[in-house]
TrEMBL record:
InterPro entries given in the database record: Carn_acyl_trans, CAT-like_dom_sf, Cho/carn_acyl_trans, Cho/carn_acyl_trans_2
Topological relation to the membrane, as annotated: Multi-pass membrane protein
SUPFAM superfamilies, alphabetized: CoA-dependent acyltransferases
PROSITE patterns cross-referenced by the UniProt entry: ACYLTRANSF_C_1, ACYLTRANSF_C_2
Name under which the protein is recorded: Choline/Carnitine o-acyltransferase domain-containing protein
Organism: Ditylenchus destructor
Swiss-Prot/TrEMBL GO biological process terms: carnitine metabolic process; fatty acid metabolic process
Lineage summary: Eukaryota, Metazoa, Ecdysozoa, Nematoda, Chromadorea
């Protein structure tokens, strides 16, 4: 077991489903708390009452009394004036504290990002003291500090262009770089000035000038199928969880129901104690991406009483709360799941069994099918609402998943099944897939949020399940368990019997055929690298993330002999309503390192020096992005504005047309609640996503404690330029070669 058990779980373990009054009470409580923060509501109330009492009995010649008696007002008017004066007196210090100390200093100051942790300035020390005191005296709720975060700044056009040119200089040929440089100069002198002005004006009316455009045009406007192209998959832990399928799903539903309500109540500790934006959590549960003819939209139900479960060709709904609105216990949910797994329902037809594949198709096709076969059919419309309003969609499989170090191909299949499985409700924010042996994974819809929210959710789940939940001492085989008769009062799973016409069945068959083509084209290779972890990397004085990024660059150069556009997802969460920014990995320093590694004239010390320089440069650019000095979101917004204004820009057209041949991301460990080193079995195996262009790779990696690196590589088999298995071999080789540079240290 891990060395330390937390004193408190990350979410409340007992909760009720809210009725309308309770929901209003929660919202009112959060609004008052957040509007008065950092002053406690009770303290504000005492101050307000004290002010009212003082002004009501103030001396006759005092200012308050003169103000109250300024005119011959009625008692009602005098009471209103007295109340207003008392409120202003009580709220004035709150207003000054919120706007001068919090908004203008604590949450705006970013100087610590520019400094060496070993050489901290006086200003940063003062900031740390104020921030530490604030956290201790007034711990914020989930969304409390979002109002204090600064708006994301619009970078100077000149700076963005310069950073862009530096990032592509080593990728383009000399002739093409000269041409792009001329396009950039022409853009900067002509249409760029006007578009930049529009961007700045737009930013005055938005707390974040990027996010609305990014969500709309990077995600919701895309007509591609969601699975593989947009969704993100994840798998289980190193160890097998000691549970059969029914018990594991019961844990899942129970914990996720409480997590959903904890978000609604804002009872989750915010990341960074409020320094980073937390407004996207509300979209994690009970959210559906509704297809549109030209653009989708998100519909959030905020919270829901039930989950949708797919089992043996049918969709069922399972209530997570009882008739008294209490969340069902794990034992009660296990009974419901066992009863479902032991049913002998009539076998589903092929069309019924594959009905969810309608959601796997292109968004415009799914929009038409949803309209025709669901919204225009009264029965199906009602059942569709039940599926879309569920807070989870869970798929129960008859086969088993596992991670076996002796048979790595099993993890390849496991992760590929999570990313491009046969049955998913692709519109749902969260899909969970549970094998017969209780091993599970999932698939998330990317438009609702990013890695920070998903990782926080995953780590809270793992910590709560590990430290505060119990499993049976003996894992019973479901097939050998006597027929389960649930306790009286427990609501059983309810089958949703869709009306599947012949025309609908034919369309399901066509949709499935198109999806199978995409599914079979996905090439996925998993690498659980256990030779070393980030602990060894730190010995070489390198940032672990930068180290892996340089290894990816080295592997790519070995395979293709050239440098390509490389996307790494980076955080811009210090700003209001923010999401991500692109960290462009390729730089002069990274290229110099890669070439040195493959050149025998450089000795080990020289190669190490170039590696450390490249890692330091990468780390510095990552910090600049945290300060709002990125390249791609700014250029993306300028491109969208140019299209909206009907302005043609050769430079922006060139920029937007360049493919991200390498798309990479690292799901970070954001809470450190679980010690993944004292027991490696509690290490999360990580996540994956598909490549973003036909001839490219998607590379997702995470550090398993100090001991391993979990890496997943995706590409398309139809591309003659990619091979995930070969890239995996080259990446492993590169990691070892790079670590050998500081083997003597």
């Amino acid at each position: 077991m891990p060395s330390k058990k937390p004193k408190q779980p990350p979410i409340p373990l007992e909760d009720r489903y809210p009725n309308k009054f309770t929901q209003w009470r929660w919202d009112f409580s959060n609004t008052v708390f957040n509007r008065l923060y950092p002053v406690k509501p009770w303290l504000f109330g005492v101050t307000l009452a004290g002010s009212f009492a003082y002004y009501n009995r103030a001396p006759i010649d005092s200012f308050p009394t003169k103000f109250l008696n300024l005119a011959n007002d009625s008692d009602v008017i005098r009471l209103l004036k007295l109340s207003g004066l008392s409120f202003c007196t009580a709220y004035l210090p709150v207003f000054l504290l919120r706007n001068l100390l919090l908004r203008l200093f604590i949450f705006r100051y970013k100087g610590f990002l520019k400094e060496d942790p070993k050489k901290v300035s006086i200003t940063t020390r003062i900031w740390a003291l104020c921030y530490g005191t604030l956290k201790k005296l007034a711990p914020p709720r989930l969304e409390t500090c979002d109002a204090f975060l600064p708006a994301q700044p619009v970078p100077a056009l000149r700076d963005t262009i310069e950073r862009y040119l530096v990032s592509v200089e080593c990728i383009l040929s000399e002739e093409e770089f000269i041409r792009v440089k001329e396009l950039a100069a022409d853009f900067q002198q002509k249409e760029g000035k006007w578009l930049q002005l529009c961007c700045r004006i737009y930013s005055l009316f938005k707390r974040n000038y990027v996010t609305d455009f990014w969500e709309k045009y990077a995600y919701l406007y895309s007509r591609k199928p969601l699975l593989v192209n947009s969704s993100v998959a994840h798998v289980d832990l190193f160890r097998d969880v000691p549970a059969n399928q029914a018990v594991r799903v019961a844990h899942m539903v129970h914990l996720e129901a409480m997590h959903m309500l904890a978000i609604v109540r804002q009872k989750i500790k915010p990341l960074g104690d409020g320094l980073v934006y937390s407004g996207h959590y509300k979209k994690l549960y009970a959210t559906n991406r509704v297809p549109g003819e030209t653009m989708d939209h998100l519909k959030s139900y905020r919270h829901s009483r039930h989950v949708a479960i797919y089992y043996k060709g049918f969709i069922y709904t399972v209530e997570a709360f009882d008739a008294n609105n209490r969340v069902y216990s794990i034992d009660q949910l296990t009974q419901v799941l066992l009863e479902l797994l032991q049913r002998n329902d009539v076998a589903a037809s092929e069309a019924e069994a594959k009905l969810p594949t309608l959601t796997h198709d292109s968004r415009d096709v799914w929009y038409k099918n949803r309209q025709k076969f669901f919204l225009e059919n009264a029965t199906n419309k009602k059942l569709l609402e039940r599926v879309e309003s569920a807070f989870l969609f869970i798929i129960l499989r008859d086969d088993e998943f596992e991670y076996d170090p002796e048979h790595p191909e099993k993890l390849d299949w496991f992760m590929k099944n999570m990313l491009a499985g046969n049955i998913r409700w692709a519109d749902k924010s969260l899909n969970y897939i549970v094998g017969r042996n209780g091993t599970a994974g999932g698939n998330t819809e990317h438009s609702i949020g990013d890695g920070a929210e998903f990782d926080h959710l995953m780590e809270n789940f793992c910590a709560t399940d590990l430290y505060f939940m119990t499993y049976p001492e003996v894992v019973e085989d479901i097939d050998s368990i006597p027929k389960c008769i649930p306790d009286k009062g427990i609501k059983l799973a309810e089958k949703l019997q869709f009306d599947v016409s012949d025309e609908m069945a034919e369309e399901i068959k066509l949709c499935n055929a198109r999806y199978v083509s995409l599914q079979s084209d996905l090439d996925l290779a998993a690498l659980i690298f256990t030779d070393f972890g980030k602990g060894r990397i730190k010995i070489g004085k390198c940032s672990p993330d930068a180290f892996v990024q340089m290894a990816i660059q080295l592997a790519n150069y070995k395979q293709h002999g050239r440098f390509v556009l490389t996307y790494e997802s980076a955080s811009s969460r210090f700003f209001a309503n923010s999401r991500t920014e692109t960290l462009r990995t390729v730089s002069k320093d990274s290229c110099a390192f890669v070439k040195a590694m493959l050149d025998e004239k450089y000795n080990k010390a020289q190669k190490l020096e170039r590696l450390q320089t490249a890692c330091k440069s990468h780390h510095t650019r990552n910090r600049e992005i945290m300060l709002g000095k990125g390249v791609d979101r700014h250029l993306f917004v300028l491109y969208i504005l140019s299209r909206a204004a009907g302005v043609s820009s050769a430079f922006l057209n060139y920029y937007i047309s360049q493919p991200w041949t390498l798309s990479t991301s690292q799901p970070p460990n954001v809470t450190n609640q679980v010690d993944e080193d004292s027991d490696k079995g509690h290490t999360w195996l990580g996540a994956s996503f598909g490549p973003v262009c036909q001839d490219g790779y998607g590379v997702c990696y995470r550090f398993g404690g100090e001991h391993s690196i979990c890496i997943y590589i995706t590409s398309f088999k139809s591309s003659s330029k990619t091979d995930s298995d070969h890239f995996r071999t080259l990446l492993k080789e590169s990691l070892i070669e790079m670590a050998n540079l500081f083997s003597d240290q």
